From TrEMBL:
Stated family: Belongs to the glycosyltransferase 92 family.
UniProt key word Transferase: yes
Membrane-topology annotation of the record: Single-pass membrane protein
EC number: 2.4.1.-
Compartment(s) where it occurs, according to its Swiss-Prot or TrEMBL record: Membrane
GO molecular function: glycosyltransferase activity
Xref: Pfam families: Glyco_transf_92
UniProt-recorded name of the protein: Glycosyltransferase family 92 protein
Gene Ontology CC entries for this record: membrane
Keywords (A to Z) from UniProt: Glycosyltransferase, Membrane, Transferase
Amino acid sequence: LVFRPIEGGCPWAWAKKCEWNAYEFQSIKIFDVPDIVEILMNNERSVIVNVEKRGAIAKDQLQVCVPPLHWYHDWARLILFFELWRKHEATFIIYANSMSENTAKVLKFYAKQGMVQVVNWPLLPLSKDGEDPNSGIYRLSHSLAHNDCVLRMNAEYGVLLDVDEYIHLSHNRSLLEFVEQRFEKEKDLGSLLFHHYGLKV
């Protein structure tokens, strides 16, 4: 297995000591996929992991991944976020760690409409010596959740962003229309990156 930090390097800007980080394992392609695999580390510790296969992908669909909400209480911004995205006819996968009661009510409301899938993102346990990995998990979990979300998605197109971000396209175009045209025109295109601009009033 190739074992490396999800961010590509360690330490990095948000994990300067590299004590806790998100890692990925990559193997060669396996043609006969088993139901479980056992990962042996340093001939000392082994972990058994269930192998999950991706489901069918829905064509002409758009899904938005939102990284974990930590101590989130701005429920009004969350409503604005969902309503702005209605134009793009997207569904959402939102990771939830901790939030206010009103925020939970907003998520429940949109989940009932079929717009939102909420994924529980619990705190990590303390280490044997009492160290708390959660002190740095806010930043580390962003990339970990994005990678998890890519595997959960069942839409042809996926977007990774935060609840204070929105993609605006001119001429009232939807994002789905825009990306379908781009991917049709450029067959080797794998992803799009949009420049980020802050809005100041």
